[in-house]
Amino acid sequence: MGRPKRNLLATANETINPPVRLEEGLLIARIKKAEGNSLYEVELPSKEALLVELPPKFRSQIWIKRGSFVVVDTAAFTARNNKLDGQIANVVRDEKQWRKQPHWFVTADNQQFLAEIFTRPEEFPKISSFADDSGEESTVGKMPPSDDSK
């Protein structure tokens, strides 16, 4: 039997609104790749890679895809001596609201970091579907020519 719907809604409501300020030890990072078993490799704005764990309250509740942002608690695993560098404390779901907050990381270094995320790779150029390379006049929406040869 699955978790009650109220738990799912509580988790979703918790992650939708950004906090007023980030506490000590919390950092905003971007998901680089899923390592498996609720482990994710994240990238800080300083290009430092960390291995973080998704806590049980988010598992099977909120799905995280590559390139999305999360709040990482680096103080959670300082006492432990293992390969984990932190734990995901929150998932950024409404990025527009988060970007308006004063703790969102926007510096000169981050401009390039953010530009890499939101630019189209060169392998996939944007092709306009309205460009007509043939030079002919389009016949879309026009009546077919009539035969007045009688």
Features:
alpha+beta, 5-stranded mixed β-barrel, 3 helices, elongated
Helix content: 10-25%
Number of helices: 3
Oligomer: single chain
* Low-pLDDT stretches: none
Helix and strand string, N-terminal first? HEEEEEHH
- The chain-level mean pLDDT equals 77
Instruction: Give the beta-strand count.
Output: 5
Gyration radius, to the nearest Å? 24 Å
Strand order of the largest sheet: 1-2-3-5-4
Whole-Å distance between the termini? 78 Å
Structural class by sheet pairing and helices: alpha+beta
Sum up the overall morphology in one term: elongated
The biggest beta sheet, please?
5 strands, mixed, barrel
Range of strand content: 15-25%
Question: Could you explain how this protein is built, in words?
Answer:
Helices cover 19% and strands 21% of the residues. By secondary structure, the protein is an alpha+beta fold. It has a five-stranded mixed beta barrel with strand order 1-2-3-5-4.
Quick recap:
The protein has 150 residues and is α+β, with helices and mostly antiparallel strands. The protein has helices at 5-16, 95-99, 108-118; strands at residues 26-36, 39-43, 49-53, 69-73, 86-91.
Which helices and strands, and how do they pair?
Layout: H1 5-16, E1 26-36, E2 39-43, E3 49-53, E4 69-73, E5 86-91, H2 95-99, H3 108-118
Parallel strand pairs: 3-5
Antiparallel strand pairs: 1-2, 1-4, 2-3, 4-5
